[in-house]
DNA sequence: CTAAGACATGCGTGTCTGCGCATATCTTTA
DNA sequence: TAAAGATATGCGCAGACACGCATGTCTTAG
């Protein structure tokens, strides 16, 4: 395993870690319909403001969301629709397992 | 947020946690071309046998891989091609960020 | 039934992570 | 400039996680 490849897996895992928390998934889901300010996100998700900021910072550090300041508000949005597609695929995998095969 | 939805996010995050480790990604990748025994996986990936078993158990507990015993060997395979698709999507997201936009 | 190979599991430890709380920074309005 | 709103950051702790090592279990060969 080359050094470069090793680092790639490290990076890939790091990105996946971004999804490895329920609150972060809730936040990402709250951004499905477009960008939202932190306050809006807190209202929608019922997550504490400081905690939401921490999770958003993690998502941002992994390139999963981007932010834009407008006045005193900061608006976040999901970086790429591929992110939602990937999450949907995993939901589909989960669904396949729950759905019992026909007898 | 309903109780059910809360649990769904918890479960979804749990599945994502399956990908949140470089060695597990390496193992999943080693299973791209089909099933492999634990010994084969250890050879390919250079992961210690006990450690590989531990990671495989985690992947299995999340429904990401399945196993089948044949004699003294146990063969693992990825549960669904959707899993590789999802991982590829994330790699694409990563690639987009590294690729600099044209000036 | 005994030995050896293949795989799984339990334990101890060092590290990471999520959270609440307090507080700091930035922006607008008075 | 002071105050208030919006967001970010630092700290401490409790729980989770990865790993190495030793050992246990299952299967086939002799």
Structural class of chain A: alpha+beta
Strand content of chain A: 5-15%
Order of SSEs of chain A, N→C? HHEHHEEH
Largest sheet of chain A: 3 strands, antiparallel
Low-pLDDT residue intervals, each spanning 5 or more residues of chain A: none
Helix content of chain A: 55-70%
Highlighted features:
homodimer, 3-stranded antiparallel sheet, 5 helices, alpha+beta
Outline of the structure:
In chain A, 28% of the residues are buried. With 103 residues, chain A is α+β, with helices and mostly antiparallel strands. Chain A contains five helices and three strands.
Structure description:
2 copies of one chain form a homodimer. With 103 residues, chain A is an alpha+beta fold. Helix content of chain A is 61%, strand content 14%. Chain A contains 5 helices and 3 strands. In chain A, strands 1-3-2 form a 3-stranded antiparallel beta sheet. In chain A, a hairpin with a 2-residue loop joins strand 2 and strand 3 (73-78). The mean pLDDT of chain A is 94. The A-B interface holds A 1, 6, 9-13, 15-17, 19-26, 29, 45-46, 63-64, 79-80, 82-83, 85-87, 89-94, 96-97 and B 1, 6, 9-13, 15-17, 19-26, 29, 45-46, 63-64, 79-80, 82-83, 85-87, 89-94, 96-97. The structure holds a DNA duplex (30 and 30 nucleotides).
